[in-house]
UniProtKB/TrEMBL annotation:
It comes from Cytobacillus eiseniae. This is Gluconokinase. It comes from the Bacteria. GO terms for molecular function: gluconokinase activity. PANTHER family: GLUCONOKINASE (PTHR43095:SF2), SUGAR KINASE (PTHR43095). Keywords: Kinase, Transferase. Residues 257-440 form the Carbohydrate kinase FGGY C-terminal domain. Its EC number is 2.7.1.12. InterPro entries: ATPase_NBD (IPR043129), Carb_kinase_FGGY (IPR000577), Carb_kinase_FGGY_CS (IPR018483), FGGY_C (IPR018485), FGGY_Carb_Kinase (IPR050406), FGGY_N (IPR018484). Belongs to the FGGY kinase family.
Amino acid sequence: MDKSIVIGLDIGTTSVKAVAFNVSGIVLAEHEVAYPLLTPFPSWAEQDPLEIEKAAINVIRWLTECSNIQSDRIYAIGLSSAMHSLICMNSKGEPLSPSITWADGRAAAEAAKLKEREPSIYEATGTPIHPMSPLVKLMWMKENKYEPYLQADSFVSIKEFLLYRWFGVKYVDYSIASATGLFDVHTLTWSEKALQIAGITEEKLFQPVPPTTVLEGLDQEIANQMGITMNLPFVIGASDGPLANLGIGAIDPGEVAITIGTSGAIRQLISTPKIDEQQQTFCYRFTDQLSLVGGPTNNGGIVLQWLKDTFGSNEDFDSFIALAAKVQPGAEELLFLPYLNGERAPMWNSKVRGNIFGLSLRHKKEHIVRAGLEGVIYSIYHVGQTLERLAGPPKKILASGGFARSPLWLQILADMFNQEVQVPVSHQSSSWGAAWLALYGIGVTQDLSMIKEHIPMKGQYMPIKENHEIYMEMFALYKELSETINRIR
């Protein structure tokens, strides 16, 4: 039987997804399994790596059993995963610690110390000094004599953990390595200075490899559980950031990807690493030739979830968002600073908190909902200003993630940036990026940029000049308030 299917396996913060595509980028089947985020103490954010492994196996098995995706029709499986996770693992591939996620803030004090004592480490790694960084997490472990840290044979991300258990390999792709804060983006090697700060040796980390690295010889038991053959190739892939850019076609200079799911980010692929002197953005390696520059916000879809939990009664999300459409842009001068979960770019302050500014007797629930949706885009626009300083103004904006299901949210984005926003049919851009990279890794396609010919597009949103003018007036106040709050906290 001829092969015609490629799968993207995306290991996210709240769930793992498996998406089966044909080579034209059309989704044939997809399945998602969620898992909880555990918060045993304030500011901690952990997950059970074995539960994530079970979810990853089950989503592949669902595709092969319940959607008529036959194993012999699959070219390969490409992997995507969230950044900044950290697991202490023993030599048998058993987890000694939970998976500590990007959202974990326990190392805030260590981040502050490092920023004061060794700010130049950012120049080598491109990873902002923040509690999300595995480097800073390792500092916390060392200083607190964390027992799993003392016993660990390896320190790995969730993707490395799975691939070691499935294939027995000690590989990490460039982008996941970059996101640790331990990797020199200029030399593509582990940074000796960062290792010293973390109190570990290079032997405790896996070998950095290109994202096109092909893995074969899947463990027989895992293959049986997934419903696939042992010889089906897996391609190591990358983190969800560069893969979202690839999967949406934001590859060439000036092409900007904006993704908003649980959190959010604005990113651009560039040919040479660019380190921000003001340390407001990240710079992660993707391939030997490409780097990713941009910035993440902690507060994307979680803002909408909080609004709905707080004000939504029994409304579904569509009905709840529809309330905001009753209100004019600017929400009658109501501003929502969406720092419900601290903030990363551009302020990198895990202690900063949100604020509703300008509240009056005139404002009702629909105004607060609108202000919340706008606040998320203000935060993206705020990061976008820094990105523009490094990489120039955007020539094209492409949007993906859960927020791309909302026409209102997309119109707010187009109005605020005063540019056309293009949207693909599938919001699973990281999965499609992982799948296309898999095709490239096994030689089915010869050029990463050819993906642009295989991305079904849904449409575009054109900016409304009058709305843009309102948003720019409001953004000036937003920026002033955010800087004030950042100083206070």
